[in-house]
Amino acid sequence: MTQLPGKAPCTAEPQPLLEIQPPLEIQPLLEIRGLTKTFPLRQGLLARWRGQPRRAVQALTDVNLSVRRGETLGIVGESGCGKSTLARTLVRLYTADSGEISYAGLDVRSLEGAALRGYNRRVQMIFQDPFSSLNPRMTVAQVLTEALRVHRMRPAGQIPARVTELLSLVGLPPEAAGRLPHEFSGGQRQRIGIARALALEPECLIADELVSALDVSVQAQVVNLLLELQERLNLTVLFVAHDLRLVRHLSHRVAVMYLGRVVEVAETQAMFESPRHPYTRGLLAAAPSLDPGQRQGAPAISGELPSPLDVPSGCAFRTRCPQAFDRCAAERPLLQTTSDGHEVACHLYDQGYPVHALPDAEMADAGMADAGAAEQATQMARP
Q1: Strands 106-107 and 336-337, how do they pair?
Q2: DSSP line for 207-260
Q3: Under a CB-based contact definition with an 8 Å cutoff, are residues 381 and 355 in contact?
Q4: Superfamily holding 28-39+56-257
Q5: Which residues of the chain have pLDDT under 70?
Q6: Quick one: which of 83, 200, 300, 373 has the fewest CB in 10 Å?
């Protein structure tokens, strides 16, 4: 693998992470309301002949989110919860079944032709795998030039200078323009993916697992690059990730997804210091700690993630929740705002008080049959 001049080798010490800046506006730039997406499964001839109903994967169900201009919204959850599907639906790589996507007042789902191209220029996506998202037969210059020509961002004579400018923006030398993707390291390929997204001068970036395919030694470099670009270019970022520590550092707010639904949304500090939903508390409990002397104060989530082909009735998390009671199986909880500003979808908050403040007797009435289960709920509520 060719090492470009001026780049640190993979054995370099990780860089310290930069500080995140506050969002620019309170009004939302991107609003999502009731977004639903399913993927029907193919049926064989025998199944169709027998008249068997067609099954579908419930990838997204009634998703509601808003993103402010200049904000970084972190989206977290287990694999298969719908994070990447949401990202691809927002950029129209997938077509939503129902719901609304509003961007700066535009109805995104109804856009066509020139209006859709304009939206695609304003909202760009950085894909998870920097190798498979780049055409292996095209040089870096061809990759960047293609976007500039399709959207007519520069006259033909100015395109080479713009390519050099984009490479410099992401920390790559001008000679990288003539190389193919396989000649770069993983971190360098991800920088090329970022440069391709920035070529169209977008207002919003959707970063799908931006650093999950990279070595730890280069993750901080890419994250710092994203923070620098966000501050310099006034970007709005949707940051999809598994790494909770990275999400905590990067995000102004965090949305937690489970089986295609948003179960909790809150400011980052409040989310990590006082999580509300049992699933969020389980995720934070399962995150490894860098302090070897710190004990694991709460148990990780038990059980397996249900199949999206057979989502449990009512609350989808009830089959793994230690605090589930009868209503959880009969009725799906809606995302509602608590007194402290959290948005949470859990029946334990319908009474108007947080579950971790309930007395043991009231916990038992909510379906916790013994004091041991109540103590477990109390432990899970602690940050």
Answers
A1: unpaired
A2: EESTTTTS-HHHHHHHHHHHHHHHHHHT-EEEEE-S-HHHHHHH-SEEEEEETT
A3: yes
A4: P-loop containing nucleotide triphosphate hydrolases (3.40.50.300)
A5: 1-26, 43-53, 213, 289-300, 351-383
A6: 300
